[in-house]
Specification:
about 300 residues, alpha/beta, seven-stranded mixed sheet, five-stranded mixed sheet, 7 helices, about 25% helix
């Protein structure tokens, strides 16, 4: 079965201090997106779709998309004016609508089961292999959608250099039953946690979080479009509110329309939230290359 990797690459890395999607991480100049593409191809994905902003198409094609070999590559463009019929952009809004809207931009060119990831993060090949296996053999739409996600452990996803936001998952019998969006999670001497009305709440190190990685069928595009009504009703006129993909997933599960299998994760996740994270990511990838996990030049 054909499967696609959708890479959300439209966001600018404000906290990192630049367009981190294009930051070279190896001696050959590969980016995080290159390593994700390589791992996806090795896992069996047959197409890669990058969701980007139209205004950096030329640079992205030159530095990322044109480098990919051995798989079909397509681009989708997140445009804040691209909204379902009946909706319009509030006066003064300059930012797009978040991860759900970004994924919805790929609706016209994705017609097979797919995995969606962030261009900012390094996930490891095992995640791509397990996700591809599920999408190729177990995903189906017959009354209830069967979706999938990898379950990363919180302690392996926080930065030493500042706070992060995470989608904290409630998992029962290997299935997702709830999601909480928590902001300003940080490391302190007493543990990892976040502020709750002035009190620092400790979160267990093995708390399962979603790192913006899901496996869907194309049915998710209709669910996203339907959810715009609720989103705009709740945030009409907002200049900052974002339509998170986690919220779409949470509603489908709550309404009994979908299940979300949570797969175990052994690979080390690496992200570049802050500029100080960059040398750590480079060193980790350099170590993997030295051990022969990746070739000196990916493509």
């Amino acid at each position: 079965m054909d499967t696609t990797l959708v890479v959300l690459a439209a966001g600018m890395g404000s906290r990192f201090g630049g367009l981190k999607q294009l930051t070279p991480l190896s001696a050959s100049g590969e980016t995080i997106a290159d390593f994700s593409a390589y791992d996806a191809i090795q896992a069996g994905f047959t197409k890669i779709v990058y969701v980007i902003k139209k205004d950096f198409e030329a640079e992205f094609v030159e530095k990322v998309a044109s480098r990919i070999k051995g798989v079909k590559v397509e681009l989708a463009f997140q445009d804040m004016q691209d909204l379902p019929v009946g909706f319009s952009v509030p006066y003064g809004r300059t930012n797009p609508w978040g991860t759900s809207h970004a994924l919805w931009a790929a609706r016209h060119i994705v017609s097979e089961p797919f995995m969606v990831i962030s261009a900012d993060d390094f996930y490891g090949r095992g995640v791509f292999k397990s996700m591809h296996n599920f999408l190729a053999n177990e995903v189906k739409d017959n009354g209830k959608y069967t979706f999938v996600m990898p379950g990363h452990q919180l302690a392996k996803t926080v930065s030493d250099y500042g706070s992060v936001s995470r989608a904290v998952c409630v998992v029962e019998d290997d299935y997702l039953v709830g999601v909480r969006e928590l902001r300003k999670i940080e490391k302190r001497p007493e543990g990892i946690g976040h502020d709750v009305f002035g009190e620092f709440e400790i979160l267990p190190d093995d708390t399962i979080v979603n790192m913006l990685v899901f496996g869907f069928t194309p049915a998710i595009f209709k669910a996203i479009e339907d959810g715009f009504t609720d989103f705009f009703t709740a945030f009409e006129g907002s200049l900052e509110a974002e339509y998170f993909l986690n919220n779409v997933v949470k509603k489908l599960i709550a309404d009994g329309l979908a299940t979300m299998k949570v797969l175990p994760v052994a690979d080390r996740w690496m992200g570049m939230t802050y500029s100080q994270d960059l040398p750590i990511v480079k060193a980790h990838i350099g170590d993997l290359i030295a051990k022969g996990k990746y070739p000196e030049k990916l493509f």
